[in-house]
């Protein structure tokens, strides 16, 4: 209401100044003119739906756009070092905003990157590019135990819960997914009415607190899970083992965000901070985890079922593979979350120092499944700073079948990355439960931005693949992606990483050193300490 009061005051002052100019002298027009302009601007800001920051901060919000307009153009580009030393290339927000708005994202004077800087990555294009396919590629998710496989898009909405995000943000993401034909991960906060209103395809994520399918004591409720998993919009179910930004630590939802509605969705007390456990009660060994995945799939009526994790040790991943082999049970998908992934509520020590970066995590999971002869039964998703077509193609080359994006999707719905997610004071209504702030996010406008961003980014990925001489993601190979290792040397991913042959872990052939010891010591009945 403060913003309405501000604009009302401007209107009153402007009217008074005009009255004085008419009655007391023309000098008052010096005050009346700017006040009229400010009052008109403020009124327009309140009623327009394109810019959330102006709806929440009429008149004052224009300062942001002024600074954006006058900043040096070179500041639109930067090099941000990722956890494994790779340059993050262009300003992520600028790229996402341009695509979400449907404007050109061309660079008229070429790259701003130092292409001789160690860590710079590039694709080895073909002299004979292929035509860009008319339709974007999809990936069939569903292994031998799956009765209802799902065709996954190359880029989907990654896990972000209702509670962390506002209702309008969830609505915009889900409607964008519905119109664009891609999937929307619910995050561990449960399925709300906002996830279901537009009927977008959902990946229902279940975390350690089992929100939405929990017993009064906080355990897993199989009957409630089966009932909700039967919802038509739920196309896949995913068990969250860990999150890239804070692996080994449970999620946190500040009490200020736990409204009556969120308390109902999550089945927790209203107004109290919710802290998820850092571990699951339904399993404690690799074998128990794999059996629970099979149980979830049965309860879900055969829908694709998998899990998400940030990779810890190679030995743990291999222990899971041994459990899959001995039980003859495989998840339909595994989502690898990189340590570089973002969140609104993670201690800096965890965000900076715990977990495996996405490139290494993908390499471990992909090669472990290949070496165990299981790769054709399991699809791999990748999440962690995926924002461009180049990011998608890199992750596919590194071992993924599809990608998920969280931060980039938030940018598409208007996030300014003010880093106030945990305060409930998000200035654009994305990460808040304050109705006065969240009302600024116009679903009708923002869902189109989500759809446009996803469509343009996947199209960019398809164009890059065509330039590499391939028309299908399955044709991508490690040698197509290269990294500068020094100012004078370049190596392809075929050389940078060890790539196992199908079934190599099961054969008598000699194993590379980094795989031999972990495979020998991995135990399907014990995770490593």
Helix coverage percent of residues?
25-40%
- CATH topology name of the largest domain: TIM Barrel
Whole-angstrom Rg: 25 Å
Mean of residue pLDDT values: 86
In short:
By secondary structure, this protein is an alpha/beta fold.
Describe the structure.
The protein is an alpha/beta fold and 529 residues long. It has two domains: 2-77, no CATH class; 138-462 and 470-513, Alpha-Beta Barrel (TIM Barrel). Helices cover 38% and strands 12% of the residues. It has helices at 2-23, 29-47, 52-56, 62-70, 92-101, 167-180, 193-196, 222-229, 260-266, 286-299, 314-327, 348-353, 358-371, 389-397, 407-412, 435-438, 443-467, 493-496, 513-521; strands at residues 121-123, 138-141, 150-153, 155-157, 184-185, 202-206, 234-240, 252-253, 274-275, 305-309, 333-337, 379-383, 402-405, 481-486, 489-492. Strands 4-13-12-11-10-7-6-5 form an eight-stranded parallel β-sheet. A three-stranded antiparallel β-sheet has the order 1-14-15. Helix 5 packs across helix 17 (443-467), helix 11 runs parallel beside helix 13 and helix 14 (389-397) crosses helix 17. Mean pLDDT is 86; it is low at 69-90.
Key phrases:
single chain; alpha/beta; 529 residues; 19 helices; three-stranded antiparallel beta sheet; TIM Barrel; eight-stranded parallel beta sheet
Helix/strand layout:
Elements: H1 2-23, H2 29-47, H3 52-56, H4 62-70, H5 92-101, E1 121-123, E2 138-141, E3 150-153, E4 155-157, H6 167-180, E5 184-185, H7 193-196, E6 202-206, H8 222-229, E7 234-240, E8 252-253, H9 260-266, E9 274-275, H10 286-299, E10 305-309, H11 314-327, E11 333-337, H12 348-353, H13 358-371, E12 379-383, H14 389-397, E13 402-405, H15 407-412, H16 435-438, H17 443-467, E14 481-486, E15 489-492, H18 493-496, H19 513-521
Parallel strand pairs: 4-13, 5-6, 6-7, 7-10, 10-11, 11-12, 12-13
Antiparallel strand pairs: 1-14, 2-3, 8-9, 14-15
